[in-house]
Design a protein that fits this description.
It contains 25 helices and 24 strands. The chain is of the alpha/beta class and about 775 residues long.
Length: about 775
């Protein structure tokens, strides 16, 4: 008998006859199928299982055997969905799938006819199935015996096999094979084969479990005997070197003042090390980890010196100037003296090379009685160098922070992190971000190194960082730092440092008593043999003199005088001349700030017949090239004020800043570039001892810039006597040493016209 039934297609789910399946529908098409089944098909639906993963339904690829089901329960849910329970009735051969104009698929089916089986064969088969199923249920621990009650009294092989399969088989692909097999006797064979196979697998698992248990028993027995032998050897004094080593590690752990979780972690690693084979590639890694953990200064703290006057005198004795940095340290110690719970600050000493940032950090440690440790992050491009490697890797190591704490020998050292502005950022990671957790006073109490794997309290560490230029540091990192600028030194400051610090240090080091260098000689060394903001090169020159003095002394010349007449015998010919530039059309001195401090930056301009192009060379950055364009636009708009013939702009104008191997960037050369172009186009000379700084706008306004003090010191070193500065920066002149303000004339300007009018009045020829 043929039936016309609506179709529900299930993806990978199989519904066998004599089984139930609960489904919930929310789409209108499925709801229409349910309604159609109730109204026209006596609640019957054909359930088809689709095995293909393709979402598109191809009628010609649907299976030809499916399950005729009947809706046994239907429930309308509050959210509008429909939940139905389908009861499998029988298998059906699909004669044809129909796809009318709607999205509902219908089918023409007929029930699979049951084959005739002899009564004796049927009874024997049912009895065999029941006996084997009973054995299977008793053997398989996770099988329920409820299936026996389900088939009790059932005399149809077709029905019994479906009930067993539905309760025995969980794999839908396997169930699909049973659904496709319409012959009930063949399904009996399939069920028996599956039960036998599962029983064999269980036997194999059981044998494996027994074998593993026996091996564990043997291992426990071996460990027991080994432990007993160890105690007997200990009584006889016959322990091996390895056993003595393990005992030493355990005794060292007992004396360690660490939290219980840390102690348990180290003990676990010692036990692991003790039971490892000597040929294991991990044994050296485990031993290295144990040594590192045992040697970390857990809960070890040094006591700070509380006499602030003594600390201040120590810092003043060892370092000239650096008043702001000294004051910040004294403030921290004063507050800490009143409240022991104060968080350690994170200082960042910013300044050019040679001004004493590193030695000052070491002096802080010595003055307050703390241990000192230093790491350098110059060129570091891997965050694992800071936070350590995960221990699963061969060759893994702790990070620089935890390694530094171990070397310091205490949990509250002065920790110098040098050159944080030299870190790199690439595919290996972002070390600057990894440093955030270390320097954040709210997080470093719970710092966790990847290698150590346990929290370590860094909140009592006094971190000091150094940098030459912090402009490229991430804002999140700068926010955690207390920036203290250490500016370059003037000639008189360098003179004091040389007389009171450098020369006494090396005389004491080399056992010299009578060496004297006049102030005039020192100033000449500073002026003609060095050109820096710090004193590193100056120190090398002094050391060079002292070496030659020692050499002459050894050779028998005991009377040594150093004067302006013979200083070149020790240092050779002068390296730097007193004059910087000559007055020349199209040549102007700008001021700049580099990693080495302030300096002058000569800017030159020229023009030639062309198409009005603007050319700039000298490795100019984007901001500086924009300054050039702004300067030219301002000059064109006001060419009459600068006595320039407008036809001059038809020429190509070339701006160059020498030293093309050094990248130049920033807007502060705006007024110098403007003056340089005007000088070239109007034949106006600018004096070689005049310099200027300031950003220019299209309206000719002169905007404020940064680093005025460093730029002025650089100009002073290069014999500049007149400087144009933005009016906004007048307040910065308070930071300029008096000796420089006495020798340099500062001209504050608000509009560029002020600069031009001043230069025009000078009327350089």
């Amino acid at each position: 008998m043929k039936l016309n039934l609506p179709v529900i297609i299930l993806n990978g789910t199989v519904l066998l006859p004599n089984a139930e399946l609960k489904l919930e529908f929310q789409d209108e098409i499925s709801k229409n199928i349910i309604d159609e089944s109730e109204l026209f098909h006596d609640k019957k639906i054909l359930v088809v299982t689709k095995t293909s993963l393709d979402e598109n339904i191809l009628i010609n690829e649907l299976p030809k055997i499916a399950t005729i089901t009947k809706i046994s329960r239907k429930l309308q849910l509050p959210n509008g969905n429909v939940r139905v329970t389908l009861r499998g009735i029988s298998r059906a051969n699909v004669i044809n799938y129909l796809n009318p104009s709607t999205d509902v698929i219908e089918s023409i089916v007929e029930k699979v006819s049951e084959e005739k089986i002899d009564d004796d064969i049927k009874s024997a088969t049912i009895r065999k199935l029941c006996n084997e199923l009973d054995i299977y249920i008793k053997k398989v621990p996770y099988m329920s015996d409820s299936v026996m009650s389900l088939i009790s009294g059932v005399n149809e092989i077709d029905k019994i096999t479906d009930i067993i399969v539905n309760n025995l088989i969980t794999d839908n692909s396997k169930k699909f094979e049973y659904l496709m097999e319409s012959n009930s006797m063949k399904r009996v064979e399939m069920v028996l084969c599956d039960m036998y196979r599962e029983e064999q697998l269980l036997d194999i698992e059981e044998s494996i479990n027994i074998k593993v248990k026996n091996e564990l028993d043997e291992e426990q027995k071996r460990l027991y005997i080994k432990e007993k032998i160890k105690h007997l050897k200990s009584e006889l004094g016959e322990l091996s070197t390895f056993e003595i080593e393990v005992q030493y590690l355990k005794s060292k752990l007992e004396d360690l003042n660490v939290p219980i979780n840390i102690k348990e972690k180290i003990l676990y690693e010692i036990d692991r090390y003790e039971n490892m084979s000597s040929l294991s590639p991990e044994i050296s890694m485990v031993r290295g980890y144990i040594d590192f953990m045992l040697n970390l200064p857990w809960n070890k703290y040094t006591t700070d010196i509380e006499d602030l006057n003594l600390i201040k005198n120590h810092l003043d004795k060892n370092h000239f100037c650096l008043d702001e940095a000294k004051l910040r340290i004294i403030e921290y110690l004063a507050v800490k003296k009143e409240s022991n719970d104060v968080d350690s600050p994170v200082l960042c000493l910013v300044g050019p090379p040679g001004v004493g940032k590193t030695t000052f950090a070491k002096s802080i440690a010595n003055s307050i009685g703390r241990n000192f440790v230093k790491i350098s992050l110059g060129g570091v491009d891997d965050e694992a160098i800071i936070k350590g490697h995960i221990r699963t890797y061969l060759g893994s190591l702790p990070g620089k922070i935890m390694d530094g704490i171990k070397r310091a020998g205490s949990s509250n050292p002065v920790f110098l992190i040098d050159e944080i502005d030299k870190m790199c950022n690439n595919y290996k990671g972002d070390p600057a971000s990894a440093l955030l957790e270390v320097l954040d006073i709210n997080q470093n109490k719970y710092f966790k190194d990847n290698y150590v794997e346990e929290e370590y309290d860094l909140s009592k560490v006094l971190f000091i960082t150094t940098a030459n230029d912090i402009s490229n540091l991430p804002d999140a990192l700068k926010d955690r730092l207390e920036i203290i600028h250490i500016d370059g030194y003037t000639e008189l400051e360098k003179l004091e440092i040389t007389k009171n610090y450098i020369i006494p240090k090396y005389c004491l080091q080399y056992g010299l008593k009578n060496i004297k260098i006049s102030d005039e000689d020192i100033l000449n060394i500073i002026k003609f043999y060095t050109k820096e903001s710090g004193v590193r090169e100056l120190e090398r020159m002094i050391l060079k003199i002292i070496r030659k003095v020692i050499t002459k002394k050894v050779l028998g010349n005991k009377k040594i005088n150093l004067t302006i007449k013979n200083i070149d015998e020790y240092l050779g010919k002068k390296i730097y001349n007193s004059e910087v530039l000559i007055s020349e059309v199209g040549l102007v001195n700008g001021l700049c700030f580099t990693n080495y401090g302030g300096d002058i930056i000569p800017i030159e301009a020229n023009y030639y017949e062309g198409a009005g192009n603007l050319i700039f060379t000298g490795s100019l950055g984007k901001v500086m090239t924009e300054s050039v364009k702004i300067a030219l636009s301002y000059i064109k708009a006001n060419y009459k004020n600068f006595n320039i013939d407008y036809s001059m702009f038809k020429n190509d104008i070339h701006i160059n800043i020498p030293n093309i191997d050094i990248k130049k960037e920033g807007p502060s050369a705006g007024v110098a570039i403007t003056t340089c172009i005007i000088s070239a186009l109007s034949n106006l000379k600018v004096g070689s001892k005049i310099a200027m700084t300031g950003e220019i706008t299209l309206r000719g306004n002169v905007m404020g810039v940064g680093r005025i003090k460093e730029k002025v010191i650089g100009a002073y070193i290069n014999n500049i006597d007149t400087i144009f500065i933005p009016h906004y920066n007048l307040k910065d002149l308070d930071d300029i040493p008096d000796e420089i303000k006495e020798k340099i004339k500062f001209i504050p300007v608000k509009k560029y016209d002020d600069i031009y009018n001043y230069l025009k009045e000078l009327n350089y020829e």
